């Protein structure tokens, strides 16, 4: 019985090791660069909402400060946004709010996704 357990553990460890090695060779994963943005919210679009707070998803168009121009950024469900010392959701943001954002481009998604957002009102 002990011999079977030992063999099974060795086989599982070998399979796990091969899975890690093959994903490393294949370039498993990607490194995404965080892109900072700062400016005023020009528009907010909420695509859908769940029943619980923080389950809304949508996008914002941000008028970039300084350099000018605009950028569209996605906000996915579960993204809590910081306003002062409180956390808010996309449905609590307003047009004209000044925000600082970090976003990342996720492969296969058309818009950069907001990962960190702080709002000053």
Which class do the helix and strand fractions yield? alpha+beta
**Helix-strand string:** HEEEEEEE
* Outline type: globular
User: Radius of gyration, Cα only, in angstroms?
Assistant: 21 Å
Instruction: Give the helix tally.
Output: 1
For the residues shown, what is the average pLDDT?
76
Task: Tell me the count of domains.
Answer: 2
> Which CATH class of the largest domain is shown?
Mainly Beta
Low-confidence stretches: 8-25
Distance between the termini: 66 Å
Describe what is shown at a glance.
This protein has 121 residues and is α+β, with helices and mostly antiparallel strands. The protein has one helix and seven strands.
List the helices and strands and how they pair.
Blueprint: H1 2-25, E1 35-48, E2 57-64, E3 70-75, E4 81-83, E5 86-88, E6 98-104, E7 112-119
Parallel strand pairs: 3-7, 4-7
Antiparallel strand pairs: 1-2, 1-6, 2-3, 4-5, 6-7
Structural account:
With about 120 residues, this protein is of the alpha+beta class. The protein has 2 domains: about 1-30; about 35-120, Beta Barrel (OB fold (Dihydrolipoamide Acetyltransferase, E2P)). About 20% of the residues lie in helices and about 40% in strands. It has 1 helix and 7 strands. Strands 1-2-3-7-6 form a 5-stranded mixed beta barrel. A hairpin with a 5-residue loop joins β2 (about 55-65) and β3 (about 70-75). The chain is globular, with a radius of gyration of 21 Å. The termini are far apart.
